[in-house]
């Protein structure tokens, strides 16, 4: 209880600063919470001479060797982000027998298997709760609390920026560009929002969760990603008419033919729990054979929510250190399941076309869809404007390749002026 557990922070940005604050706030209680004091002995920064108000300057270093060669450092907390030098630092820390906590989804989605194997070799903890969904506990529940289940589906809103944008488009009738500008102004979107709005951020998180839930390694490159840049306020209005909402969803399913893992916009019924998750909140919906359904919801990003998850991992690792059982839970990917290509995945589709306002158009569109094995479930056609009208088709479940073949033919037809939107339906 008296000997402190010494940790090193790599990075003092938004998340690193939050972890520093939270550990400082809990310092007096830490012996009771973790079993021993937790003491920050080093903070790795790019410029150790830069003044950082509220931070003890004696802790700052710009030399990684100060940390990795210090035998008193038991836990390395990587909060730098990106692939390098984070990959090198984590690898060297594990090889030196140091436990690691990271919030790095980019790294874990690509090199997670390799790093977890390295941690196992050296009997170290590698914890990464903060890599997915910020403050929401989902990695530990999947690895531990739900370990007795066969998980068949994970579906979630795992990017707060895009959820905020779609909320503004839904509630205020804004177009995408205006909603993105508001998200940027409020700090929800980065100066370069590409990773968020194109679905890459969510795709990395889905790779991590699918790997854990289905016990088979899934990397980011295997996740089909599609963003929200082509969603229009018109699409959202039609969705509302049908009692549905549009969300950017990550979907992972364990099927007899292999794992499906994808990120794309989707129409979901207003009655679904995820339909009511708005603004910058995240939520993950899990289905297991014993569990049935459960949903985890909370703030998915930000200084203190992410610091909450990181600090939880630090405390858990500290407890393991004190009990001599680090490395107790490592990689859970003991299967080698195939990952299905997007062409082989089946979905329902919302297709919005701008068509000529003349007889025979609906029959022509229906004929093309039918010839490609696409059945129609619902049709909405709005009044003509300028010689053209909106034709909205909801299909029955169909294989992706068949809908793509049909769309190629529709684009070549003179009666179809534009295929404005193609969105999957849950």
From TrEMBL:
Active site: 205
Names of required cofactors: a metal cation
Keyword NADP: yes
BP terms from Gene Ontology: methionine biosynthetic process; threonine biosynthetic process
Binding site for NADP(+): 10-17
Pathway annotation from the record: Amino-acid biosynthesis; L-threonine biosynthesis; L-threonine from L-aspartate: step 3/5; Amino-acid biosynthesis; L-methionine biosynthesis via de novo pathway; L-homoserine from L-aspartate: step 3/3
InterPro entries: ACT-like_dom_sf, ACT_dom, Asp/hSer_DH_NAD-bd, HDH, HDH_cat, HDH_CS, NAD(P)-bd_dom_sf
Pfam family, one: NAD_binding_3
Molecular-function GO terms, alphabetical: homoserine dehydrogenase activity; metal ion binding; NADP binding
Protein name in UniProt: Homoserine dehydrogenase
Originating species: Butyricicoccus porcorum
Organism placement in taxonomy: Bacteria, Bacillati, Bacillota, Clostridia, Eubacteriales
């Amino acid at each position: 209880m008296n000997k402190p557990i010494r940790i090193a922070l790599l990075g003092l940005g938004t998340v690193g600063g939050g972890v520093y604050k939270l550990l400082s706030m809990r310092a007096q209680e830490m012996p009771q919470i973790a079993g021993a004091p937790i003491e920050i002995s080093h903070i790795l920064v790019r410029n150790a001479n830069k003044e950082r108000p509220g931070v003890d300057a004696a802790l700052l270093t710009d030399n990684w060797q100060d940390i990795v060669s210090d035998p008193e450092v038991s836990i390395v907390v990587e909060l730098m982000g990106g692939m390098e030098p984070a990959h090198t630092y984590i690898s060297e820390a594990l090889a030196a027998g140091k436990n690691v906590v990271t919030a790095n989804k980019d790294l874990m989605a690509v090199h997670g298997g390799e790093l977890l194997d390295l941690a196992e070799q050296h009997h170290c903890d590698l914890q990464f709760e903060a890599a997915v969904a910020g403050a929401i506990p989902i990695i530990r529940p999947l690895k531990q609390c739900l370990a007795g289940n066969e998980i068949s589906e994970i579906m979630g809103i795992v990017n707060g920026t895009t959820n905020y944008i779609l909320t503004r488009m839904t509630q205020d009738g804004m177009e995408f560009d205006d909603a993105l500008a508001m998200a940027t102004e409020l700090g929800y979107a980065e100066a370069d929002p590409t990773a968020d709005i194109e679905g890459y951020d969510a795709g990395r998180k889905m790779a991590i969760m699918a790997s854990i839930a289905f016990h088979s390694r899934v990397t980011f490159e295997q996740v089909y990603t599609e963003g929200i840049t082509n969603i229009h306020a018109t699409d959202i209005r039609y969705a509302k008419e049908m009692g549905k909402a549009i969300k950017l969803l990550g979907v992972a399913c364990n099927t007899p033919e292999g794992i499906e893992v994808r990120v794309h916009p989707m129409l979901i019924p207003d009655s679904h729990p995820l339909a009511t998750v708005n603004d910058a909140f995240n939520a993950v919906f899990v289905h297991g054979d014993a569990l049935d359904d459960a949903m985890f919801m909370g703030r998915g990003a930000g200084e203190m929510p992410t610091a909450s998850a990181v600090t939880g991992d630090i405390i858990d690792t500290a407890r393991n250190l004190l009990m001599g059982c680090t490395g107790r839970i490592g990689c859970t990917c003991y299967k080698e399941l195939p990952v299905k290509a997007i062409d082989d995945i089946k979905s329902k589709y919302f297709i919005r076309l701008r068509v000529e306002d003349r007889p025979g158009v609906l029959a022509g569109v229906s004929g093309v869809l039918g010839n490609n094995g696409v059945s129609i479930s619902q049709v909405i056609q709005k009044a003509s404007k300028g010689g053209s009208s909106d034709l909205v088709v909801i299909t029955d479940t169909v294989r992706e390749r068949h809908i793509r073949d049909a769309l190629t033919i529709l684009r070549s037809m003179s009666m179809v002026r534009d295929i404005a939107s193609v969105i999957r339906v849950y």
